[in-house]
Design brief:
Number of strands: 13
Number of helices: 9
Largest sheet: 8 strands, parallel, barrel
Shape: globular
Strand order of the largest sheet: 1-2-8-9-10-11-12-13
Strand content: 25-35%
Order of helices and strands: EHEEEEHEEHEHEHEHEHEHEH
Helix content: 25-40%
Radius of gyration: 17 Å
């Protein structure tokens, strides 16, 4: 999962969602068809411990937004993203993707690490294709304690003086850095400490070119079809 490609590898941010609901299985499969080698998605846990692929911590209810964590999986299964497209479970998503792409799981729900571990163990045959990451670096440290074999990353939307120190503290091997705060010096530093840099979410060619020159390992973009087409011109 970790060999460095050149130009940067292609990760689809929440699937190919120009015409499909983001974080839906249909959007993930469309991204794979468009050439994405990785899928990035977000998860929360239901009241009964079922992991749902959804960006926000709430879903639309009759009287307004309702926290996902307050509903059980049967209630959530009745909520549609669009038409007949339901909010997918992480189990169903991993089964649908299979071995066709790496899956990068952003843990958004709080205190759900045990739920995540239980789910990933049900799909352990593909564990080398999975990675978890989070803005809450404590979550990643906990995941390493519970499941040492899992690939891990931390998210940043700032330029730390010592990003490698933050990665070591969490036990992360990937640095998910907002594209605005990526430069060649950061990439050199992270590579020197044995890590990878994944830039999120650049969506235009000039940014892709800048990040390629900087030496990032992967780009996580909303425009993965366009990125894959652009990337082929560099090979």
């Amino acid at each position: 999962m970790y060999p460095k490609p050149s130009p940067p590898d292609s990760i689809s941010h929440r699937g190919l969602h120009d015409n499909l609901p983001e974080n839906s299985i249909a959007a993930f499969l469309a991204a794979i068809e468009a050439g994405a080698s990785g899928i990035e998605l977000d998860i929360h846990s239901s009241a009964d411990g079922v992991l749902l692929v959804h960006h926000d911590p709430v879903v639309a209810g009759v009287d307004g937004p309702v926290p996902i964590a307050s509903l059980d999986s049967k209630q959530l299964a009745r909520i549609k993203l669009a038409d007949d497209i339901a909010i997918p479970t992480l189990d169903d998503t991993l089964e649908a993707i299979g071995t066709r792409a790496a899956v990068f799981i952003e843990i958004k729900g709080r205190a759900i690490e045990n739920d995540v571990v239980r789910c990933l163990r049900r799909h352990v045959r593909n564990i080398d294709a999975y990675a978890v990451h989070s803005f809450d670096h404590r979550t990643i440290k906990r995941m390493i304690e519970l499941m040492p074999a899992i690939h891990t990353g931390i998210l940043q939307v700032s330029y730390l003086v010592d990003s490698c120190r933050a990665m070591r503290a969490a036990g992360a091997t990937d640095l998910w850095q907002h594209a605005e705060f990526v430069d060649a010096s950061l990439v050199v530093d992270v590579h020197a400490c044995g890590g990878r840099v994944i830039a999120w979410t650049p969506n235009i060619e000039s940014e892709w070119q800048r990040l390629h020159v900087a030496g990032v390992d992967a780009v996580c973009t909303d425009k993965v079809g366009r990125y894959v087409a652009w990337r082929t011109t560099l090979q």
